[in-house]
Amino acid sequence: AALTVRFLTRRFIGEYGDMEFIYSHNLTMDGREILFHIWDVPSSQEQAEEGSSEEKRIQWADSFVLVYSICDRASFNILPLKIQFIKASKEGQNQEKVPIVIVGNKRDLHHQRVVSSEEGRLLALSLDCGFYEVSAAE
């Protein structure tokens, strides 16, 4: 949620509840108007839901940004299963590669890091995904 709000408003807010939100945002890039619809789902809510809700979100989306905390090994470890589920759901239908980016957040908290940058890069490479490390706070 912090990363989404930072993208939409350029502000950082540190505390969020476990609420699901859909945001819309217009952006002009290279002279083209792009409309984003962002379905922001906290991982704690996702883990508690049935597969059908997650399947609905996957079918709704054209691309995916999966965010983990570099300070939370469990948030990183769940990514391979999520990505396999997304690919099976999306790519099985039309054989097109679905755009997926893995983002390690909280780079500013390097002193609490438990997932190395190299681990993130290797996971993204092995799953054919993009990779970035960022700090929503900075």
TrEMBL record:
Keywords: GTP-binding, Hydrolase, Nucleotide-binding. The keyword Flavoprotein does not apply. The keyword GTP-binding applies. Its EC number is 3.6.5.2. Pfam families: Ras (PF00071). Gene3D superfamilies: P-loop containing nucleotide triphosphate hydrolases. It is an enzyme of class 3 (hydrolase). This is small monomeric GTPase. It catalyses: GTP + H2O = GDP + phosphate + H(+). InterPro entries: P-loop_NTPase, Ras-related_GTPase, Small_GTPase. GO terms for molecular function: G protein activity; GTP binding. Transmembrane segments: none annotated. SMART domains: RAB, RAS. Belongs to the small GTPase superfamily. Ras family.
